[in-house]
Design brief:
The complex is a heterodimer. By secondary structure, chain A is an alpha/beta fold. Chain A is 35% helix and 25% strand. Chain A has helices spanning 29-40, 92-108, 140-148, 162-173, 191-205, 212-216, 218-224, 226-236, and strands spanning 6-9, 18-22, 44-50, 59-61, 64-66, 69-76, 79-86, 113-121, 133-137, 152-153, 177-184. A nine-stranded mixed β-sheet of chain A has the order 1-3-6-7-2-8-11-9-10, with helices on both faces. A two-stranded antiparallel ribbon of chain A has the order 4-5. The longest helix of chain A has 17 residues, at 92-108. Chain B is an alpha+beta fold. Chain B folds into two domains: 1-34; 39-132, Immunoglobulin-like. Chain B contains one helix and eight strands; from the N terminus they run αββββββββ. In chain B, strand 2 (44-49) and strand 3 (53-59) form a beta hairpin. The longest helix of chain B has 27 residues, at 8-34. Chain B is flat. Chain B starts with 7 loop residues before the first helix and ends in an 11-residue tail after the last strand. Classes of the chains: A alpha/beta, B alpha+beta. Chain A binds chain B through residues 126, 186-188, 218-220, 222-224, 226-227, 229-230, and chain B through 32-33, 41, 43-44, 46, 57, 59, 61-62, 88, 90, 123-126, 128.
Chain lengths: 252, 143
């Protein structure tokens, strides 16, 4: 596959760390989670990913430039955590190349495992007080590890979109990838689901994360991210999410 | 005026057409974000059509209580207006210096709605309006 992605690092990434990914998708659960994680664990900016497949945008914060897909890193105890946070949804034509790039980057930097933080849209979300989180993995050991720490595996069904492709690439390259997907709204930003995802992540890594601010500012976050949610919904057309509501033919 | 040349009126009409097209573009571009009036936003919403009803959900984040939400049916259009608890503005963002104070949404509905039995609920900032559909049912015998 044509290599259309590049990484730019401000510092060396230590070997053996964990890559944590938050990319806009249903309920924006991924970027809300990684944004909160970066703040809560005081991770610092260590680089970014770029590609001609990304929309031609650059952000400014306090008049300083920020790339839309950034890397943050730092130690939590003895564990090095590298966060890949994206403020833009990945257009369908960029999904395959990004997924193989994430996996080859993981191998090249000798990272130990990859966590994908996200959501799984459910119709009755409004009536769910605390969303349940499911673990999905291409690595039996990692899934068992998550299960042992109280995160239930997703037993049946399709996963679609960018995380599905990263899971596929991880499977092919034998890179341990685990997705933590919480029940969420399809097209409203869902900080409550992000709180559940982060709590599951905390159980697996053994490092605590205070999710109270996410729950307390739930409506404020929804208000802030409404435009990002609209852009994400537009980008999500044709990325395979519709398969998540489909029963596969293997049940025939 | 010979063939191939435009008269003054035609040029003026063409200018008006271009101006209308630009105004339409601006309106369609900004209304997706800000709604038709100042400080008004179109909420995130979804419309689910089921066999016997239509369910309209709208994210009215920032609206405190159901008393701040107005719902009406005007012909076959559902109108939702809601007032935020306080004006929401993002400091430093040039595109929205005024911020938003209200939500406004209009959803076109089919002819066969049952306006007498529309129900609405408001929970955690999310409004759900259920509009039943009047159904003419004719039983057909399978031979």
């Amino acid at each position: 596959m044509k290599k259309s992605w590049s990484s730019f690092l401000y510092e060396e990434i230590p070997e053996g760390g964990t890559l944590v990914v938050g990319i806009p998708d249903v309920g924006l659960v991924g970027p809300i989670s990684t944004s909160h994680l970066v703040k809560a664990w005081e991770l610092r900016s260590v680089g970014y990913f770029d590609s001609p497949d990304l929309p031609p945008v650059i952000l400014f914060h306090d008049a300083s430039p920020l790339m839309p897909m950034r890397l943050y890193g730092g130690y939590k105890g003895n564990d090095y955590v590298l966060v890949l946070h994206s403020d833009v949804a990945i257009p369908p034509q960029g999904i395959h190349s990004l997924a193989s790039f994430v996996v080859s980057f993981t191998q090249e930097k000798k990272l130990r495992r990859v966590f994908l933080l996200g959501g799984i849209a459910v119709q009755e979300r409004l009536n769910i007080e605390t969303p349940k989180t499911y673990a999905v993995s291409v690595d039996k050991d990692l899934l068992f590890y998550a299960q042992e720490r109280g995160v239930e595996p997703l037993r049946e069904g399709f996963i679609g979109g960018v995380y599905a492709q990263i899971l596929k690439e991880g499977y092919k390259a034998r890179v341990p990838v685990l997705a933590l997907l919480s029940e969420c709204f399809l097209n409203y930003p869902d900080p409550g689901a992000s709180a559940s995802t982060l709590q599951a992540f905390s159980k697996i890594t053994g490092h605590s994360i205070d999710v109270k601010p996410l729950l307390e500012q739930e409506e404020e976050i929804r208000l802030r991210l409404r435009e990002m949610m609209k852009r994400t919904m537009e980008a999500m057309r044709g990325v395979g999410k519709e398969y998540e509501y489909t029963i596969p033919a293997l049940y025939v | 005026m010979g063939e191939g040349f435009w008269g003054f009126d035609e040029i003026l009409a063409e200018f008006r057409r271009i101006r209308r097209a630009i105004e339409d573009f601006e309106r369609s571009f900004f209304e997706r974000v800000f709604g038709p009036e100042e400080r008004t936003a179109v909420p995130l919403y979804e419309v689910r059509r089921l066999s016997d009803r239509i369910v309209v959900c709208a994210d009215l984040a920032g609206v405190r209580s159901k008393e701040d939400v107005e719902i009406s049916l005007e012909g076959n259009t559902l109108r939702i207006d809601a007032r935020l608890q306080r004006r929401f503005s993002m400091e430093g963002f040039a595109f929205s210096r005024e911020g938003i104070e209200r939500y406004h949404l209009e959803v076109p509905l089919p002819e066969n709605i049952d306006p007498e039995n529309v129900r609405a609920s408001f929970k955690r900032g999310i409004l759900e309006v259920v509009i039943p559909l009047k159904q003419k049912r004719v039983k057909i015998k399978v031979e």
